[in-house]
Request: fold
Amino acid sequence: MTDVHAAATHISAGAALPEGGAPVRRASGPVLGTGLVVGAMVCQEFGAAVATSLFPRAGALGIVALRLAVSAAVLLVVCRPRMRGYRRADWALIAAFGAALAGMNTLFYQAIDRLPLGAAVTLEVLGPLVLSVVTVRRAAGWLWAAAALVGVALLGRGGFDRLDGVGVGFALGAGALWAAYILLSARAGSRFPRTDGLALAMCAAAVLSLPAGVADAGSRLLNPVTLGLGAAVAVLSSVLPYTCELLALRRLAPGVFAVLMSLAPAVAALAGYLVLDQTLTGTDIGAIALVVAASAGAVHASTR
Reply:
């Protein structure tokens, strides 16, 4: 926990450490970082909508294992991470990062197996919002985080009275691990070159999730249709968004990144509308507008 808070403090101060450990300036500013975060969310939430159709085929645990295994294989081939020359602390960071990835995805898929996608993401995003309140020290940042929290609460207002209690617990647990993932991803991005840290952590996450996935799904994971759709979900929900997020965390402070992630319920609501035929109420639209305004305000405050 000490290392995690140290990473948050260091990166929030505006420095990123390359492999050699010397501080360097970020290659670009918050505009590109914001675009990367939004692109990551679009891929992730639409991938989650597609993943719900696979649960009857292989179960939530099976789909998580398939998604992480395919993601790890793709990242290993594309990134070809260097395996030598790292210290014990570096491998401990990879293990923690992988555990956060595996736990976050497992709990989230358990949640969307029991809850509507928009409601699950609304609850999950409370983790990054709490992180934003803890790490953003300027008064403007606190105000924008509070506004985003109000929007998230409004977005989930219509369905929380009918939600499955176990699903709510899974979503909140996924949110806590999401906050941990943000800080660990930032630290891995500063200590490993390119996207090597992400590739290695994804391998660790796949190893951790495979036993439960195989036990739950068995030979159903080898069905050609399941494999094909699972590969598509892996690219949409893991490879593209996690790569974008890691690159974004080299350009944005974790607190600003966390507030931007409050856009996730809005994107999930859009994915639910387009893919799952879920309608949006007037309250939903107003909540989305509030969250978008709060996220834009947080980015503006960070550039001043």
